[in-house]
TrEMBL record:
Designated name of the protein: Uncharacterized protein
Superkingdom field: Bacteria
Length: 102
């Protein structure tokens, strides 16, 4: 029989560390939106400059959303980790009451 050996505290710590890293990335990204002037594309390239500025803005917004989604995933993983830990504790308690913990 295979055993599940999950160190819930370690998992919780790792999730918190990674969530903090992604929160910082999201915050930094939000604070530094693209600063591309369509005029920088050069004379005669106004349309291309507008398209490039829009593409950079959309990429920026997608990156911020991706970081936010990742943070949501870390929250969900934390909830699942708590569920696993609670179930493990409940099962261990039941085994102890039946004298089957060894």
């Amino acid at each position: 029989m295979s055993q599940l050996d999950a160190d819930s505290e370690r998992i919780r710590s790792l999730l918190a560390n990674h969530a903090e890293m992604f929160a910082q990335l999201r915050d930094e990204s939000e604070q530094r939106p693209p600063n591309f002037s369509p005029a920088a594309a050069g004379a005669g390239f106004a349309l291309q400059g507008d398209r490039l500025a829009l593409a950079l803005q959309r990429l920026h917004e997608a990156s911020v959303r991706r970081h936010q989604n990742r943070l949501h995933h870390f929250d969900r993983l934390g909830e699942l980790n708590d569920t696993i830990q609670g179930t493990d504790e409940l099962n261990a308690s039941e085994l102890r009451t039946r004298g089957l913990d060894e």
